[in-house]
UniProtKB/TrEMBL annotation:
Highest taxon above the source species: Bacteria
Predominant localisation class: membrane
Species this protein is from: Thorsellia kenyensis
Membrane topology: Multi-pass membrane protein
Subcellular location: Membrane
InterPro entries: Membrane-Transporter-like, SLC26A/SulP_dom
Protein name stated in the entry: SulP family inorganic anion transporter
Length: 169
């Protein structure tokens, strides 16, 4: 029970800024994002889920739906989201998940990378008229991220070299 409460608290803290950010990307009122981040986990709690299942708004959906919201309004976002859920339920009922094996890893990687690029481009408008402190903090955040990636790759290379050394002897 204690672990469930702690995990629920951590997820709630992560979902609040994420849902507001996705709302800003979609150019919708942040209240809509907060409502979705509250309603989706409640539905999943009653419908059931899996241990590794993501039950929150995703960047992929927010980037795909941004054009829909701008062209047709918020009403169509709800309809498209419900239709997406129905399609996912049908895929699950007919056990069509095995078809994902036919999508190559490079296609999935390209899709994820394009989402990252689109999210970055969507946030560029927030840089207009900002103070120098924001640029410094952004550069510091990117520096921390790239430093951790560098350390990870360096450790991976050391482990790989050590493994080759062991195989040689």
């Amino acid at each position: 029970m204690h672990a469930d409460l702690l995990s629920g608290f951590v997820v709630a803290l992560a979902l609040i800024p994420e849902s507001i950010a996705f709302s800003i990307i979609e150019d919708v009122d942040p209240k809509a994002g907060l409502y979705s981040s509250f309603i989706i986990p409640i539905i999943i709690a009653f419908a059931g889920g899996r241990p590794a299942m993501i039950s929150a708004a995703t960047g992929a959906m927010s980037l795909v739906m941004v054009t829909l919201v701008k062209d047709h309004g918020l009403q169509y976002l709800l309809a498209a989201s419900v239709l997406t859920g129905i399609i996912q339920i049908l895929i699950g009922l007919f056990k069509l998940g095995y078809l994902m094996r036919f999508i190559s890893r490079s296609v999935v990687t390209g899709f994820i990378n394009s989402l990252a690029i689109l999210m970055f481009i969507a946030q560029l408008s927030e840089f207009k008229g900002a103070d120098i402190e924001m640029y410094i903090l952004t550069a510091l955040g990117l520096g921390i991220i790239y430093f951790h990636i560098y350390l990870y790759l360096e450790n991976l290379l050391c482990l790989h070299s050590f493994g080759l050394l062991l195989l040689h002897y």
